[in-house]
Amino acid sequence: KGCRHSFKHPSFYKEKSFSTTALSRHQKGCVKLKQASHNASQSSNNILNLFEKQSMVGNEANDPLTGNDVKDTVLDFFIAGNIPFNQADSPEFQRLISMIKVKGKAVKINRKNLRSRLAEQAAIAKKDLMDELAANVSRVSLAMDGWTSRLNNAYLGMSLVAHK
């Protein structure tokens, strides 16, 4: 059985009342999805890898853990999970983060430095994009569309195409 990954949301089928059961069954048995999930868990931007990398520091790690590694990974975690930055101030999160040591010292993470880290990353991404577009000798088309879902989630879609 090959995975098609062309399921539509159940509300798409107006003539029949479908539930999400078929989609759930597919997710449980799909080899491609399991492999993608496994690959994601092996990526360097996984919060569990911070603890693994930390245990290697001083032993045989070629690139020791830095405070910026921790901050970037935590920021990625918050963004990927759509978690509000104020959750970084919760006592449970602070207890978890206090377990990660960089050169024997705890890394300070709170909502304010997450927000500033995001602003820094956005500025870097903007500069990189501007440099790339300035170096481009072809024409560029940029299309953007924003919408809100039925559950009041905001989405922004962007497409950047270079024409020769």
Task: Describe the structure concisely for a colleague.
This protein has 164 residues and is an alpha+beta fold. The chain has helices at residues 21-29, 31-41, 47-56, 67-80, 91-97, 111-135, and strands at residues 101-102, 105-106, 139-148, 154-163. The chain is extended, with a radius of gyration of 21 Å.
Protein described:
The chain is 46% helix and 15% strand. The chain has helices at 21-29, 31-41, 47-56, 67-80, 91-97, 111-135; strands spanning 101-102, 105-106, 139-148, 154-163. It has a two-stranded antiparallel ribbon with strand order 1-2. The protein is extended.
Structural class: alpha+beta
Tell me the radius of gyration.
21 Å
Low-confidence stretches: none
**Overall mean pLDDT score?**
76
Q: Share of helix among residues? A: 40-55%
Kindly state the number of beta strands: 4
Strand content: 5-15%
| Spatial sequence of strands, sheet with the most strands | 1-2
Shape: extended
The H/E string reads HHHHHEEHEE
Number of helices: 6
Largest sheet: 2 strands, antiparallel
Rounded to the nearest angstrom, the distance between the terminal CA atoms is 41 Å
